[in-house]
Amino acid sequence: MMNERWFNTNNLSTSLNLTMKHWNAFLSKR
Questions:
Q1: CA distance 18 to 28
Q2: Distance (Å, rounded) from C-alpha 30 to C-alpha 5?
Q3: Per residue in 1-30, pLDDT tens?
Q4: Taking the mean position of all CA atoms in its chain, how far away is CA 27?
Q5: How far is CA 8 from CA 15, 25, 28, in A?
Q6: For the chain, where are the alpha helices, taking DSSP H only?
């Protein structure tokens, strides 16, 4: 169960990083 929880947390942080990169690119274009 710990492994599954870690995977979910890691997946969340990864998607968060992608979102931040997306926003940075969006803000840079403006």
A1: 15
A2: 38
A3: 567 887 788 888 999 999 999 999 999 987
A4: 17
A5: 11, 26, 30
A6: 2-29
**Chain position carrying tokens 């979910």:** 8
CA 8/CA 6 separation, integer angstroms: 5
Tell if the pTM clears 0.85, that is, is over it: no
Q: Which two tokens stand for residue 30?
A: 């403006």
Q: Could you report how far apart the first and last alpha carbons of the chain are, in Å?
A: 44
**Alpha carbons 16 and 13: distance in angstroms, whole number:** 5
